[in-house]
Design a protein that fits this description.
Blueprint (H helix, E strand, L loop, with lengths): L2 H14 L7 E11 L2 E14 L4 E15 L2 E14 L2 E11 L2 E9 L4 E7 L5 E7 L5 E2 L3 H8 L3 E8 L4 E17 L2 E11 L4 E9 L2 E11 L2 E13 L3
Parallel strand pairs: 9-10
Antiparallel strand pairs: 1-2, 1-15, 2-3, 3-4, 4-5, 5-6, 6-7, 7-8, 10-11, 11-12, 12-13, 13-14, 14-15
Length: 239
């Protein structure tokens, strides 16, 4: 999928809800589990609204992880904001604290269709690098949305991962359409798998007016098995 196809997929979703998209929003809370132990909490809020060119989805999130081990205590905090429009990523801002070390990252799309990533690293050194928008198909936030909306059973996407800000090839495979009970409400769920050279797993993806969001995720990465489990959900005008 190239950037043109990516934009086409986003515009199809915009057109689908163009007549009734009216400040749809959703707030979700998840618990983060690693090797069967709860290590943290993730809170996310999505808000969608129409613009004169199409639509925007603003995603804000915060994460808090605490790990006590034989080697000591580890703390991680993050606060992020992602803005997605009919052409994909518009901007990103993230602030992080890992133990006593603070860092921040910003991503912007400039007039030359270049992605600019810049910020302050844990080492207190400023960094900046650029690459062409055509070098990736999606960001990790909207890649499942792009895949599910494509109708394909399998697809390889070049994904800008907002965990480490590197571009990775991700293989997505569609498993089945299912439904899931969340707080007594039934949602359609697309069950998919994903894999990279360092991470693999499965996700339950719900598509609504705010785009696509994860109801749950189970996977394996360099740190072992993990799960992200939805524990609380509130929403308005998403269906």
């Amino acid at each position: 999928m190239d950037s043109l196809t990516n934009a086409t997929a986003e515009k199809k979703l915009s057109a689908k809800y163009a007549n009734d998209l009216d400040d749809a929003w959703i707030k979700a809370t998840y618990k983060i589990v690693s090797e069967k132990e709860v290590i943290g909490k993730l809170s996310s809020e999505r808000k969608a609204f129409l613009t004169d060119k199409g639509f925007e989805v603003i995603v804000t999130g915060s994460m808090h992880i605490t790990i006590d081990s034989f080697w000591g205590k580890y703390n991680f905090l993050s606060n992020e904001e992602i803005v997605i429009n009919e052409n994909g990523l518009k901007r990103y801002q993230g602030a992080f604290q890992e133990d006593a070390n603070e860092s921040n990252v910003s991503i912007e799309l400039n007039n030359n269709n270049e992605i600019r990533i810049y910020g302050l690293g844990n080492d207190k050194e400023r960094f900046e690098y650029k690459f062409k928008r055509e070098e990736f198909d999606a960001i990790s936030e909207n890649a499942p949305w792009i895949f599910v909306s494509s109708g394909a059973t399998e697809k390889r996407l070049k994904v800008l991962d907002l965990d480490d800000f590197e571009i990775k090839e991700v293989i997505y495979r569609y498993q089945k359409k299912d439904n899931i009970d969340i707080n007594g409400a039934i949602f359609d769920c697309h069950r998919i798998t994903f894999s990279t050279p360092v991470k693999r797993g499965d996700q339950c993806i719900v598509v609504d007016k705010t785009g696509a969001w994860i109801a749950n995720e189970n996977g394996t990465d360099a740190d072992g098995d993990y799960s992200i489990v939805l524990t609380e959900l509130t929403h308005s005008k998403i269906r």
